[in-house]
Amino acid sequence: MPTDKMIATLRAAGLTVPENEMDTLAEGVAILDQVIARLDGASPGAPAKKDGKTDER
Amino acid sequence: MSADLAYLSIAEAGRRIAARELSPVALTEAMIDRAAAIDDGLGSFVTRSDDVARTAAHAAEAEIAAGRYLGPLHGIPVALKEAFDTAGIRTTVGSKLFRDRVPDTDATAWVRLRDAGAVLLGKLETTEFCYGGPSDDSLFRPARNPWNHACYAGGSSSGAGVALASGQALGALGTDTGGSIRLPAAYCGITGFMPSYGLVSRAGVFPLSATLDHVGPMARSVEDCAILLNALAGFDAADPGSVERPATDYRAGLGDGVKGLRIGLAESLAQDKAVSAEGIAAYREAAATFRDLGAVVREVALPSFDDFATAQIVITIVEGYALHERDLRTRRQDYSYHSRMRLSLGPFIRAVDYARALRLREALIARCTEIMRDVDVLLAPGAPGAAPKAASIEAFQFFKKPLVTMPANVLGVPALGMPAGMSKDGMPLAVQLMGRRFDDATVLRAGAAFQGATAWHLARPPVG
Question: Measured between beta carbons, which residues in chain A are less than 8 angstroms from residue B310?
Answer without folding.
Answer: 35-36, 38-39, 42
